[in-house]
User: What shape does this take?
Amino acid sequence: MSKSGTPCTMTALNEMCWDADVEAAALDHTREKIKDPGYHWATVALVEEGRDPASNQRITMSQLKAWWSAVKPRPQQRGRPLSMLTIRPAVCRLRVDTFPTRERLPTTGLNTSYTNTVPDNRIDAHAMGYFDACMGYLGCTFHYVIRLDGVDEIGRNPKTLSSRGRSTTRRHDTIFIGVVGGLNFEDGKRIDNITDTQRKAVA
Assistant: This one.
């Protein structure tokens, strides 16, 4: 019984979900194209925090499996032409250029998520560097930042270590890509608001 008087429910042992389970599920989706990119980007941050996107409660194994099935990697299509992607440096010198981190290990995974900002044309790698610095980081924690117009800006040297993510082991071999958006203009709540140009940029 909780302090509020409501009965407490205990999670069965086989339903308990550990950090290693969450990390394994998240890594499975970063290796291949995923079936529902919009849903993945809108929910992966919650899952990595160990919360179920539907209930916002601590995630169980059944809920983790349900999430994995919803964004299950789809088979790669052979012979598909490569999409045109514009990658360019940030418009000005970034803090991470002045305070670089050490080099990371060879890439084994990609982590694509929203920047958890409102969709604004002014938000780019330089803006994200300022936002992340305000949160106590050295600068932009995304290796790449995809703006609303689909342009991919370099947020930090792709060869260097980022401090994003809950798992310190994943930081050593993962590229972090931030898609500008993820929050509603009106109330600041999480929302799937990726633009068509952004979707093409990460396709």
Observations:
- The longest strand covers residues 109-114.
- The helical segments are 19-30, 37-48, 61-70, 95-98, 125-134, 168-171, 196-202.
- The longest helix spans residues 19-30.
- The beta strands are 87-89, 109-114, 144-146, 152-154, 174-179.
